[in-house]
Amino acid sequence: MNRLARMWDSDIAWSFRHSPVAIVATVVALIIIMGAVLAPWVAPFNPFDSASLNLMDGFTPPGVPNQFTGNTYLMGTDNQGRDIFSTILYGARISLFVGFAAVVFSMVLGIGLGLLAGWRGGWVDSLLMRIADVQLSFPSILIALLIFGVARGFIPPTMREEVAIWVLIVSIGLSDWVQYARVVRGAAMVEKSKEYVQAARVIGVHPTRIVLRHILPNVMGPVLVIATIGLALAIIAEATLSFLGVGVPPTQPSLGTLIRIGQQYLFSGEWWIILFPSIALLLLALSVNLLGDWLRDALNPRLR
Amino acid sequence: MLAYIIRRILQSVLVMLVVALVSFALFRFVGDPINSMVGQEATIADREALREQLGLNDPFLTQFATFIGRAVQGDFGISYRLQQPVMELILSRLPATLELALVSGLLAFVFGVGFGVYTALRRNGWLSNTIMTVSLIGVSLPTFLIGVLLIWVFAVELQWLPSFGRGDTVQIGNWTTGLLTPSGRASLVLPAITLGLYQMTLIMRLVRAEMLEVLRTDYIKFARARGLSNRAVHFGHALKNTMVPVITITGLQLGSIIAFAIITETVFQWPGVGALFINSVRFVDVPVMAAYLMLIALVFVIINLIVDLLYYVVDPRLRVDRAATRH
Amino acid sequence: MLSKLHTGVFARTGRAMLMAGAALALTMTGANAETLRWARVADALTLDPHSQNEGPTSTLLHHIYETLVGRATDGTLQPRLATEWMISAEDPTVWVFKLREGVKFHDGADFTAEDVVFSLDRARADSSGFKALHSAVESVSMVDDYTVHVKMAGPSPLYVQNLTNTFIMDKGWAEANDVVLPQNFAAGEENFAVRNTNGTGPYTLVSRDPEVRTVMAAFGGHWDATPAVTEIIYTPIAEAATRVAALLSGEVDVVQDVPVQDIARLQQTDGIKIATGPENRNIFFSYDMTSDKLISANVDDNPFKKPEVREALSLVIDRDAIQQVVMRGQSQPSAAPLPPFVNGWTAEMNAYGKPDYERAAALVAEAGYPDGFSVDLHCPNDRYLNDEAICQAMVGMLGRAKINANLVSQSRSLHFPLIEKWETDFYLLGWGVPTFDSAYIFNFLVHTREGSFGSFNGSRYSNPELDAKIEALATMTDLEARDAMIAEIWDKVMEDRVFLNVHNQMLAYAMKDNINLDVHPENQPKMTTVTFGN
């Protein structure tokens, strides 16, 4: 744990204190994340509860009373009469959940396979890297589309709605593991040949222990950077998939689904349906990306 | 050498087979093509008969074997949707996609390298910071939204550029090009920007990082000490050294260019293979989907093969390295 | 040429048209050549006139090929290649068609009865998409050069209504090019007629790049008056936003599939106008009201089997709200599961009341579900106007009566097989009635599923008494008695609440304001009807 501690030493803290971009990005990201996590308590409405919606509230402009119901909404309503502000909070919840879960999934998978490949070498390494090649050749969106198709075939119709979000997570995560695997594999190969590891092996330390105690902490820096940028990518990927018609059900929209819906009203004058969710997505992805940038520079200037 | 090439080619064939098997296994879950192929008056018996005729009821492996058997002869069948030979259909759409990918790749490369060098040299200048942040906005919004916004601003409000299609094209042999007509070039601008934005940001960041790295090395310090001008140091030495990784990574981005071409082509009604694929997915046009995925796999396999062989020829050290890592 | 907007785009497109125009010098006549650039959501799938019975395909082909009888914008039949049609005085099972004389195909061949016999045979071939419409035909024979007899299996008083999309080909051309039968997919070969045409229609095909652009020019040898539009450039644009943008930027003149939300805005835009009109298509929900147990429900029986629940459904649907918000006023809310164009429709069937959620919840409780129940609602998301949004709104309304619907909205290629395979409990469907007669609805949606009947009967509704009546309709020649029978059938269907109708779809075409084009009830506008000027 000593190495992990070193990662968080004062250098980083100093760098953070002296980077206004990092501070602002952190604050923005935290506000959105808090808003999303606390949505059920913060949001004025629950837009996922279809029965509570009044269709006649639809298309209310921001801050203007609805012509039929007289209700006023801060950011207006969408085509189903959902309060945009509340829907953004609830939608960000879905987007962040999908993003985090996809990142964790690809991270675990990538680190695991990367360690395996780097540590074992030989045909295991050969095979895994070949799979990685195939994976890289296939566009990530295509992979996600195809996985979605398969899942639809295997999962009984009645369960599809509940598992849709998990399918989404696996689809996005599965197209992203290669990056982690490559970094970890490289590090594992380097460490493996070092004397202390050889020594540890000689005295009979269990390989798992060596990997967990010595190799893994060494790669946590780059992995964290990939994960941060991966989070932004996963959130955007979810939005893109929803444009192609796969993703979470429209009754429980994510930020991406909201933008897809709002996109239909770009020319019809209901600008608020697309504007506010887009700003929310932009702020979220931008701040996470900027944090990733900063982290990359701060953790290791030699790192690409 | 020969043994190495043969082994790599065999591996490539294996990769192609796996891709075919996987993609083929997926089609049955995309939906049922029959409903789109017959009118609403068709009886259930008619539908079943067509399903039987197309072999959709055969066991999976039988279907797969038939497909492979025909595919090796270059026969991918007839599109369920457009009723034309699939190979012909894809080949007629390929120029549009390749031109779009090429132009957007070029744009991304030129601007990416330019901005990358600038931001590396003026590390903390306000313009550098602005470029860095604005470029991030490009990757923080989904591609389809960027495309629609560009259409709104440049086609509808300003009316500078066309909103859809490829404009007029000129036929040169089997190749149709939009690069030779004014409307063709104008039509290319918005889709190329939409598609290239992501790559540009990536290249820019890569060049910047590489430049910063190289500028710090002793080699550059020596060059400076020798009294070379800043310009000569930056472009003659530093940039040259960053190019190898940049070009390699750019090449590897082929997959993502193809992926985002699907979206870009859909938004701009660009008549390329990406839009063809998405329309085929919606219609469950199995022959076109299969051929498209095989084509993508083939392109990738060939590029990988060439890269590997080039490495092998160019850099003798890699033979040892590769031999060491692969076994 | 259309003036206005002399922007960069327009100048460029104008030049493109000139280039295309040079190629057409032969077919363009007169100084007042007018080009119309027409965009819609999808392209024709094929140019083979008998392969696909599908909207965009027929719409495009109506410009190149012609039918014996046509459908006017008010839904009535009009003479095209046939000038007269009647049931034979001697034999009630024979239809007689008198053909137009002096009609030429695009390649110069004469149009005669031989071509009609050939085309009707081709349309009945196994690989034809139209064979179901001609299933009652026994044989087609030529009496003289301009008279054709169609012998039916039994009296078929409405057969002529099935002919409005069956195009006539030239026998000689078809034989010379080996296209005697429509495309057979399994054969794995492309049919010559997929990309080549030879019709009698008002336009000839100049060039075609599928899904990119199809160019047609007025046919100088056409029997009818020369249309105002002498050249058509047809471009499919799949994305709704892009399609509207193309009209706003002046790159196209007519947009056929206008998203409902954009109508109001386009109407206010200078230089653009909108034509709207009802489509011959109604949108409704239906449910499995027959099985003992549902697939997706959380209860052990079938709630939809209980009349109380079906009544509750009719009480929760707020058709006016759907019309006002989801459809932006562009629909005709109605309880009648058939469009007003269709024979059998009555104003009484249209009537519906205000939603009553309390009563609905009480009925659901009365039916034995005090805590309500949950069920999947299947919906297409790329087939009808705002289909997904309609279902979404319905989910909210159902929730107020404690019916918890899980919305499963998906592409049409996944949605429709569910109805065909009886894998859905509750679904949205739209139904167009090309014959303009209720029998068409009964045959496919009401009759028990057997043989050629009931293929879209997703409610599993089965009433032998009604089945017998429906079958009788086909051969009744006394039209008054037949109409009475139709009314009887509808009474029972309405009483049993087989359908929960939402509305009739409205169509909207957007165009430059110097163009006049009326909405066609089958969404098959003919560019020959276009006029210019305000």
Helix and strand arrangement:
The complex is a heterotrimer of chains A (about 300), B (about 325) and C (about 525).
Chain A: H1 2-7, H2 10-17, H3 20-37, H4 39-42, H5 84-120, H6 122-137, H7 140-154, H8 160-174, H9 177-192, H10 195-202, H11 207-243, H12 255-263, H13 272-299
Helix pairs in contact in A: 3-5, 3-13, 5-6, 5-8, 5-9, 5-11, 5-12, 5-13, 7-8, 9-11, 11-12, 11-13, 12-13
Chain B: H1 2-27, H2 34-37, H3 44-53, H4 60-71, H5 86-121, H6 126-140, H7 143-157, E1 170-172, E2 175-177, H8 182-215, H9 218-225, H10 230-252, H11 254-268, H12 273-283, H13 286-314, H14 316-326
Antiparallel strand pairs in B: 1-2
Chain C: H1 8-23, E1 35-40, H2 55-61, E2 69-71, E3 77-79, E4 82-87, E5 94-99, H3 113-123, E6 137-144, E7 147-152, H4 171-176, E8 203-209, E9 213-218, E10 231-236, H5 240-248, E11 254-255, H6 260-268, E12 272-287, H7 307-316, H8 319-326, E13 331-333, H9 347-350, H10 357-366, E14 373-380, H11 387-399, E15 403-410, H12 412-420, E16 426-432, H13 438-446, H14 464-473, H15 479-495, E17 500-512, E18 515-516, E19 531-532
Parallel strand pairs in C: 1-10, 1-11, 14-15
Antiparallel strand pairs in C: 2-3, 4-5, 5-7, 6-7, 8-9, 9-10, 11-17, 12-16, 12-17, 13-17, 18-19
Helix pairs in contact in C: 7-10, 13-14, 14-15
Mean pLDDT of chain B: 80
> In terms of structural class, how would the helical and strand content of chain B be classed?
mainly alpha
CATH architecture name of the largest domain in chain B = Orthogonal Bundle
The interface involving the most residues is between: B-C, 62 and 66 residues
Provide the CATH topology of the largest domain in chain B.
MetI-like fold
